[in-house]
Amino acid sequence: MSEGHAPVLLAEVLAALNPRDGGRYVDGTFGGGGYTRAILDAANCTVIAIDRDPDAIARGQSLVAEYQGRLELIQGNFSELDTLVEGKTDGVVLDLGVSSFQFDQAERGFSFRFDGPLDMRMSKSGPSAADFVNTAEEQDLSRIIATLGEERFARRIARAIIAARPIERTAQLAEIVSRALGPAAARHPIHPATRTFQALRIHVNDELGELERGLEAAQATLAPQGRLVVVSFHSLEDRIVKRFLIGRSDREARPSRHAPEAQRGQKAFRLIEAKAVKPGNAELETNPRARSARLRAGERLAA
Question: For helices 207-221 and 235-247, what crossing angle results, to 10°?
Fold first, then answer.
């Protein structure tokens, strides 16, 4: 089932989640099914797996048949897992990376490695990346690329996009960005369009808003001693997860000024690791996509 998609930090995720016989777990980002399979193999437990991508749900039906009665697949957003899943759970795992299946399908428009329609929608609904780049004001384009892509040449890229519209293909956008950044950027080991594509994908799918809502939903559904395990892939995501867990940890000395007033002082988690867990050299050699992965985890305290 997970052929073509290597789950990142798999051993570390299992250690943090600690699946047990009779437990009930949520894989909020089913993707290629790697985490789900590993959880089901680790203990005689059940898994409710959620994914907003209908293709992922369709691919997962063979896994449902293989683990008779132990796996349920639900199409939906993990931000709604507290309403999609009835009752309390013993663990929630979230992998915030884009599935290799999505990156490797040209027609999904996630990657500049393949020419395809400039789409990037995980659920195949709502405005696409092409809709956004062809209608947005220059200042909005620049802000999104700078903030979500952490791209310091965002203004230059936004101007180039405006001048080249309409833009409908991934290769077309990648070429526009590359030309805007010039030959020096082309010599950099990271493709010049990487940050722009990241920004558009995050914006189109509201990934940061989804994460913030998903963390709240996970807290609501976890039983005491239930584990929340999150694997993120860039600093914007990791910052949100870190703030959420540390800000609600029993080890936090002072409330975060960023937390809503009603949540300040709320102690909901025990940190499982004091710092983010990173991939080891052995994993990086076999799976370079893991290089930016960070794992954070907490155990739910009694209410």
Answer: 30
